[in-house]
Amino acid sequence: MDLKDSVLLPCDRATAWAALNDPDVLARCIPGCETLTMDAPDHMTAVVALKVGPVKARFEGEVTLSEIVPEESYLLSGHGKGGVAGFAKGSARVRLERVSADETMLNYDASADVGGKLAQLGSRLLDSTARKLAAAFFENIRTAVGVTEEVDG
Questions:
Q1: Which residues contact 72 (CB under 8 A, 6 or more apart)?
Q2: Are 7 and 99 spatial neighbours (Cβ–Cβ below 8 Å)?
């Protein structure tokens, strides 16, 4: 499955970049995130609980950041195992564009594959769930950087 979209963030590029690299901000923004630990500047481990249709799963996974261009872009690659529910793996290219002094466009192009019980659910349900999770994450990021901007200002 492939997802591609852009989200306008109410902050400058440095603030957006900091939020996208802050494990505390990310943990609050990722739907179902139970824990997120940054083991190294380019590596995180996470536990995320999700429900996809009738399947509930608790995924334990790793995320690696590569091709990092500070305050501009990176490639995020990850995989997670959800026990009998199956596995998920994917990647996302994230790019920040300055729109104005206090607005940044976050562009992402992501792809994911699933296996096990999750793969048996059908692409329509998986695509719909992935789009809802992505929309929730990016709305949470918008709120987080907006709140940060207001607190700082």
A1: 13, 17, 95, 96
A2: no
> What pTM value is reported for the model?
0.84
Distance CA 142, CA 129 (A): 20
Fold of the domain spanning 2-152:
Alpha-D-Glucose-1,6-Bisphosphate; Chain A, domain 4 (3.30.530)
For residue 126, count other CB atoms closer than 10 A to its CB. 19
Residues 15-71: tens digit of each pLDDT: 999 999 999 999 999 989 999 999 998 999 999 998 888 888 899 999 999 999 999
Say if strands 43-52 and 33-40 run parallel, antiparallel, or are unpaired. antiparallel
Q: Where are the domains of the chain?
A: 2-152
Nearest C-alpha neighbor of 33 from the set 69, 67, 7, 58: 58
- Higher confidence at residue 139 or residue 149? 139
Query: Please, is 26 exposed, middle or buried when counting C-beta atoms within 10 Å of its C-beta (0-12, 13-18, 19+)?
Result: buried
